[in-house]
Structure formats: structure tokens, C-alpha cells
Amino acid sequence: MKVSMIQYDIVFGNPKENYKKVEQLIKQAVDSKPDILILPELWTTGYDLNRLDEIADEDAQDTIKFISNLAEQYTVNIIAGSIAKRMGGKVNNTMLVFNSTGKLVHEYSKAHLFRLMDEDKHLIEGNSKALFSLAGVLSAGFICYDIRFPEWIRKHAVEGAKIIFVSAEWPKPRIDHWKYLLIARAIENQCYIVACNRSGSDPANVFGGHSIVIDPWGHVVEEASENESIVTAVLETELVDEVRSKIPVFEDRRIDLY
Ligand SMILES: NC(=O)CCC(=O)C(=O)O
Fold first, then answer.
1. ipTM for the complex?
2. What positions does the domain CN hydrolase occupy (predicted)?
């Protein structure tokens, strides 16, 4: 399986400009014939949370139409990062997953809100699971701060997820946490990690890039620099079963103790 991560500099608070930019980047990315494309967190608005009244996507309708058309046009599965989705006056940070016919197959709203970037003041947390099947592989998709909660990721690995996708806007000052947390999640869950961060900056933060693909042994398969880039990697999903049978950590858990 081939995956491409679209690490780009999100235009602050401007969904129209971000749609234009993402259309160009997706057109570029499909040249390397990936099975799955992934975008960063809150890619239509960035962290312009004070203006969500104006710029959140009502019921995600604009984004669903936009990404669904691109997925169908290029026959590619798209994990459309996350967007600010308004429903009934409340806004979630929601990941949207489309298959290669353009069908929306899964939605997940960020379960852990990140107070340091004021998410708790503007957004509501999600309550649903992150598991989905795409391109024939059982996977799970999380959003940024979620990766600091190993129990949440483990729950999905135990239920069979072989690839953990992550969309993020992770700031540069903690980019070492980003890398080490993701390597730890790959090793402890014996799965692939495909994690797409943004690059560039907004009025409050500089973001760290370094989108990354990690294999089930914890080895880095591909890693971006800090700059805008599209990074493609090949995943050998059989490796997940191989590692899980060699060191059967899921079976060896002491669920009677913890
Ligand atoms: N957008 C986020 O959730 C950022 C999380 C983060 O920076 C962290 O250190 O955790």
C-alpha cells in the first residue's frame, strides 16, 4: 500500500483559499499513484477559533462535496484531515474519510481537546470510536493531541487496527514529543503510523512539519522536513501480523491486573 501525506502551510481562517491550495496539492500528489492521501488537522480554517461562527463548515457539507469530487475524479482514498464542523450550533474538530469512489465512509471527532491552544473554549469533544476500513485494511484515525493518550490508541489496536493515521497541527517547540510519542505508539501497538502535520505558522504558533511514517518495529520509513512537501511511503501491511506473532504483547497483557 502506498500512502502520501500532504504537509502544507494552511491559510489562516480562509476556507476558500485552502480549498484552492488543497486541490492543487492533491492534483500533484496523485502523480505518484498513492492508494491513500492524508491531510493535516483543521486544514480549512487553521486555528482561527475566534471566527468559527463565520468559517466553520455547516454539517461539513462544503468539504464533503469538495473532497468527494476529488476522491472520485482521481480514484483515490482520502483521509481529509480534520475540519471545524458545525452541527446544531456546536463545533467539533472532525476527521472525514472518503473511499476512492468519493463516498464518505467514516467520521471521527477529536476526543481530547487541547487546552493550550484554547480548543476547550470553542469546540466540543467527540465521543465515537476511530476505527474504519480503507483500501481493505482495518485502520484508525486520530487527531493531534489524541496521540498523548496511549489507552485510546491501544483500544483500537486491540480491536485490529493495523495502521494508525494521525492528522495534526503540532507546534515546532514540541516536535521532539511528536516524533517520540509516535514511535512509542508504533512499537507498543505493533502497527504502522502515518502521521501528517502542517508546516508554516499562524499568528500564535510556528508548526513543526516532520510528517512521518513509522513501521511496526518503530523504524522511520519516511519523514518530511519542516517545509511544505508531499511525502510518499510504501507500507507492507503483512509486517504487522509478523511482528504481532513474534512478540505477542496483546495476548501477554495482564487484563486481570490492569
Ligand atoms: N493541535 C494539537 O492538538 C496540538 C497538540 C500539541 O501540541 C501537544 O503538545 O500535545
1. 0.99
2. 1-237
